[in-house]
Amino acid sequence: MSDLVLRMTDVYRVHGSGPTAVRALDGVSLSVQAGELVAVMGPSGSGKSTLLNLAGALDLPTAGVVEIDGQSTSSLRPADLAALRRRRVGVVFQDLNLIPSLTAAENIGLPLELDGRRVSEAHRAAVGALHELGLDELADRYPDQMSGGQQQRVAIARALVGDRRLVLADEPTGALDSLTGEGVLAVLRARCDAGAAGLLVTHEARHAAWADRVVYLRDGRVVDSTEAYSAASMPRARHTPAPSGTSPSPGSSPVAGMPPAPGPSGAVTPPGATASVGAHSESGREG
What we know:
Layout: E1 4-15, E2 22-33, E3 37-41, H1 48-55, E4 63-68, E5 71-72, H2 78-88, E6 89-92, H3 104-114, H4 119-132, H5 148-160, E7 166-170, H6 178-193, E8 197-201, H7 205-208, E9 213-218, E10 221-227, E11 239-240
Helix pairs in contact: 3-4, 3-5, 4-5
């Protein structure tokens, strides 16, 4: 199996037609390798969520090609596309999408059951995913018996369960305090280090610092790309120009490189330096 998990080539997503048409994505090219975590940043309306929807085969491009594990999403039949999503793609949605009538473990195990796994096997995998995030006590709780932060972590566990080659996260720490959020990012980073490919949408530079690369979107285009921070590359990221064909329109300016991400005492925290939650936290706050 190829190390290239996600490839997007000259991808457009246009809503509407004629003079009122809106280009949510405008010729985006992006690839993510196995073991790589790529952060996507940009202002509201820049196309970040559209990019994730296309990368996860939740939507199809108007033009261009999106490939997951070498399979073009536009060429698959609906049933095959659904199977690809269940087996290979894990998505953390902004609105969580937990089923109210199912417990946390049942929500997490449902994709595995739909894919033909035995109920007992799916339950064991779900409990394991909860344990990985330190949520053992939530296994038998329903969504309305959890806080917003607990629901978000259950949604993250659902995205990580099973053999997911591609993990997509749209602001996964939005409802979490700083301490818990950094712990979730450590789990996502560890999953990518174990061989998954990850795409993370975030507004916060300190969260993007967990990634290997940071891609900046503006008006549906990739306007800049930088390598994220590591122990060897601090205190500043190394800048690389945007790929050919993805330069911004005349008059627009590339987004400047990120400042170093502060740690708990103002120092830059190297991503991946430790999986300990406490080592990456700031003072607690509700998201």
